[in-house]
Write a structure and sequence with these properties.
It is a single chain. This protein has about 260 residues and is of the alpha/beta class. Helices cover about 35% and strands about 20% of the residues. It is built from seven helices and eleven strands. The strands form two sheets. It has a nine-stranded mixed β-sheet with strand order 3-2-1-4-9-6-10-8-7. It has a two-stranded antiparallel ribbon with strand order 5-11. It is globular.
Length: about 260
């Protein structure tokens, strides 16, 4: 068994109770046990809340609800407020841990216990962080360089599955509420860099978690078609847009409150 008494599994959920069940069952099958489990629901439909009530009895988690949908920022904030352990494993409900996750998670917990400089350990991403300094056991330190022209450097923080200290909101501020999810994530990423956060990144970033989106419970975050197009003119426009974003994001780091 892999038992992490000083870590709470925090799951944000919205209208995907089948995905939530799959995630909780996966951790159970991997013999992963945590000091606590918090499920923060963002005003799901009655049929999902009914299923969650049954899951609560089965998995014995702490359910935090809200009478209406208030967005990603509020959902993470109220969930994190309910955490009482030193560390938090944050996972959105549409992810599933792989068979090799427990062993590498044990390493991550050891790193964050032993060195107070680490604020976050990331386990999943769509792309590698641009500048990585080899650390140990398959992890690297993320290095932010001010003059690096790669716009991906601004996403040092990500909402994808990660381990963090449970005083995260005290150090980096609360997630902004009442705005779109991608902007919520971006503003937290800016705050993380402004406050000199430090983190580790798992090198094989697609091997520890899988993102599962069925036709019955599809993702609510969809990338714009123009970001995926291979049309030469669109690609040229995208390059210009990314240069603009680099400048805008740099100014945000300097001036955003």
């Amino acid at each position: 068994m892999h038992f992490f008494p000083d870590t709470t599994l925090l799951i944000t959920h919205y209208n995907r109770s089948e995905s939530l069940e799959r995630l909780l069952t996966s951790f159970e099958d991997l013999n992963c046990r945590f000091g606590d489990i918090v499920v923060s629901d963002d005003g799901s439909k009655p049929e999902h809340l009914e299923k969650i009530a049954g899951l609560k009895n089965r998995f014995n988690f702490n359910l935090i609800t809200t009478p209406k949908n208030r967005g990603l920022g509020n959902n993470i904030n109220k969930g994190q407020d309910a955490v009482k352990t030193a560390y938090t494993l944050y996972v959105q409900e549409d992810f599933q841990p792989s068979d090799i996750f427990p062993a590498h998670f044990e390493d991550a917990v050891t790193f964050i216990r032993q060195d107070s400089k680490w604020d976050i350990v990331r386990f999943y991403a769509y792309f590698a962080y641009p500048t990585l300094k080899p650390f140990q056991k398959g992890f690297s330190e993320m290095v932010y360089r001010f003059w690096d022209m790669n716009h991906l450097k601004f996403y040092y923080y990500s909402d994808h599955p990660h381990l963090r200290r449970s005083n995260f909101l005290e150090k980096f501020g609360r997630y902004p509420e009442g705005i779109k999810g991608d902007l919520t994530e971006y503003k937290m990423a800016v705050s993380f860099l402004q406050k000199k956060g430090k983190g580790l990144f798992f090198n094989e970033f697609t091997k520890l978690f899988y993102q599962k989106n069925s036709s019955d419970e599809p993702s609510t975050m969809v990338r714009s078609d123009w970001k995926l197009s291979e049309n030469p003119l669109v690609k040229l426009a995208r390059r210009g847009y990314l240069r603009y974003r680099w400048l805008k994001n740099t100014l945000d780091l300097v001036f955003m409150k």
